[in-house]
């Protein structure tokens, strides 16, 4: 039986642990957080059909049921708005993700903290906290040994780096793989949705997802999260994204009130409701995220060490594909290691096939995120005018809307060959 060491207890690493244990493979997760509840990030994620499909493949039935039970209310579409709150075009839900009878082929709004709790459920004996990874070495028989800052170590058959865009596993395993500053920074904010805020919030902002296009090198994304059960703790996620030069050189040193003040200075000509939205977000729920992206590395020879998620194909959150791609990695690596564990593939071949496929779809997602980011910050007056005009035409002519927007959601989440094969054999 294989023993797999996973460095990093984020969404991708935990999904991999669930998938491996579901297939009878020993998996241990080593997480630098000191305890289970250290992470307090409570932001909405959009799980697309690729993410749903991957979660269904990795999760045991009780956890899959818990996932579907704790998702947010669907619906609302995706609106492209002007800074005056005029709707340029509204893309309906059925166009983004056509309804499917299979729950694993649907899109879901989820709370990141809640999803992580679902992924942790049943892994109490597998997750080791307060384990900061420092380095690995290979034993005489080629097995990896991970060394941690507290002086402990662990040896397994495979070591997986799921430790984020600043991955220490990747830095040692693939020292020539680099990441770059995208030139943009994002500020996340949350507005509680209650009777008071709903009383003044414009109806379009209180529904679905929206992108406020400004014709300036900054934009605002909003997304509603309303729980189906348990009821309560609803919120509007906001992400203000701007070019680096519009903020101080070290924006992470600013507190929530200071970050809001910088945003306020940039949106003086926005609709009063948008300015109020920023003003009423509690400062304690404001965080800053410098946007980085991984450079596409040259192919490498497979070994007993590999990487997944942001550790290899980190991307800005524009388009919402980071978590979905990490989940897809977890499902594919689970499949490949299961084939190795049952003797159907030699271990190096299993990992090599995973890495080849992962590089293809992973960096497709990176490229899409970068294009989406640049489109949002578009400030050339001619391009901005043409885009607004086309969006307004699409809002009137449904075939144009379908042609323009349908592929952008469908392509990135469409089943790949191995996913279709898994569906046929399940």
Automatic annotation (TrEMBL):
**Keywords tagged on the record:** FAD, Flavoprotein, Monooxygenase, Oxidoreductase
Q: Where is the FAD-binding domain?
A: 298-367
Specify whether Ribosomal protein is a keyword of the entry: no
This chain's source organism reads: Micromonospora luteifusca
**What does the organism's lineage look like at the top?**
Bacteria, Bacillati, Actinomycetota, Actinomycetes, Micromonosporales
- Which Gene3D superfamilies did the record assign? FAD/NAD(P)-binding domain
Q: Does the keyword DNA repair apply?
A: no
| Designated name of the protein | 2-polyprenyl-6-methoxyphenol hydroxylase-like FAD-dependent oxidoreductase
Regions crossing the membrane: none
């Amino acid at each position: 039986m294989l023993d797999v060491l996973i460095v990093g207890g984020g969404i991708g690493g935990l999904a991999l642990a669930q998938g491996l244990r579901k297939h009878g493979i020993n998996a241990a997760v080593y997480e630098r957080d000191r305890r289970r509840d250290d992470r307090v990030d409570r932001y909405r994620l959009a799980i697309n059909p690729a993410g749903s499909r991957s979660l269904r493949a990795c999760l045991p039935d009780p956890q899959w049921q818990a996932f579907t039970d704790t998702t947010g209310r669907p619906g609302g579409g995706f609106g492209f708005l002007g800074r005056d709150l005029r709707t340029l075009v509204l893309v309906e839900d059925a166009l983004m993700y056509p309804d499917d009878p299979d729950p694993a082929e649907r899109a879901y709004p989820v709370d990141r903290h809640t999803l992580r709790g679902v992924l942790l459920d049943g892994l109490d004996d597998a997750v080791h906290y307060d384990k900061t990874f420092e380095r690995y070495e290979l034993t005489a028989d080629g097995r990896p040994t991970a060394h941690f800052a507290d002086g402990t170590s662990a040896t397994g058959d495979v070591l997986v780096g799921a430790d984020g865009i600043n991955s220490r596993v990747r830095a040692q395993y693939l020292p020539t793989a680099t990441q770059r500053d995208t030139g943009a920074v994002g500020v996340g904010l949350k507005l509680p949705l209650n009777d008071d805020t709903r009383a003044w919030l414009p109806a379009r902002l209180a529904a679905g997802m929206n992108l406020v296009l400004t014709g300036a090198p900054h934009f605002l994304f909003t997304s509603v999260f309303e729980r189906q059960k348990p009821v309560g703790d609803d919120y509007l996620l906001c992400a203000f994204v701007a070019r680096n030069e519009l903020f101080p050189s070290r924006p992470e040193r600013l507190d929530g009130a200071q970050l809001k003040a910088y945003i306020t200075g940039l949106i003086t000509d926005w609709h009063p409701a948008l300015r109020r939205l920023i003003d009423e977000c509690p400062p304690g729920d404001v965080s800053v995220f410098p946007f980085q992206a991984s450079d596409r590395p040259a192919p490498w020879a497979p070994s007993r060490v590999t990487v997944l998620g942001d550790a290899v194909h980190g991307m800005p959150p524009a388009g919402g594909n980071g978590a979905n791609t990490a989940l897809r990695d977890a499902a594919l690596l689970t499949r490949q290691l299961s084939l190795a564990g049952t003797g159907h593939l030699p271990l190096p071949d299993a990992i090599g096939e995973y890495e080849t496929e992962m590089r293809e779809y992973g960096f497709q997602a990176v490229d899409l995120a970068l294009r989406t980011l640049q489109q949002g910050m578009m400030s050339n007056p001619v391009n901005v005018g043409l885009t607004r005009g086309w969006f307004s035409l699409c809002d009137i002519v449904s075939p144009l809307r379908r042609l323009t927007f349908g592929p952008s959601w469908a392509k990135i989440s469409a089943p790949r060959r191995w996913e279709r094969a898994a569906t046929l054999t399940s």
